[in-house]
Amino acid sequence: MSEQKKTVSIPTNLYDAIQERVEGTEFNSVEEYVTFVLEEVIKDDDEEETAFTAEDEEEVKKRLRALGYLD
Predict the structure, then answer these.
(1) Which among 24, 27, 40, 57 would be 20 to 30 A from 16, CA to CA?
(2) What is the pLDDT of residue 43?
(3) 5 in a structural domain
(4) Closest by Cα among 2, 18, 21 to 10
């Protein structure tokens, strides 16, 4: 079953710039490229939410010091 899609409008000059960027890549269309980029942005946002807290960072440093990796 095919994934449902929605339409998003972008300025023509942006579309044209993306189309130029897509040429000669593994992407078969502007839509495919834009989908990939947006998925990467969303993935990066999700990863930032799971980043180390200051306490986590201190715990890692403490362990590295105990192992002799940090002074």
Answers:
(1) 40
(2) 85
(3) no
(4) 18
Degrees to nearest 5, angle at CA 7 with 13 and 39: 85
Based on the structure, what is the number of domains in the chain? 1
**What domain range is 46 assigned to?**
30-71
Does 35 fall in a domain? yes
The three-point CA angle 27-28-31 to 5° equals: 85
- Chain segment 32-65, per-residue pLDDT in tens: 999 999 999 888 665 555 567 888 888 888 888 8
pTM across the whole model: 0.59
Q: What residue spans of 1-71 are helical by DSSP H?
A: 12-22, 30-49, 54-66
Cα dist. 51→9, 27, 54, 58 in Å? 33, 31, 10, 13
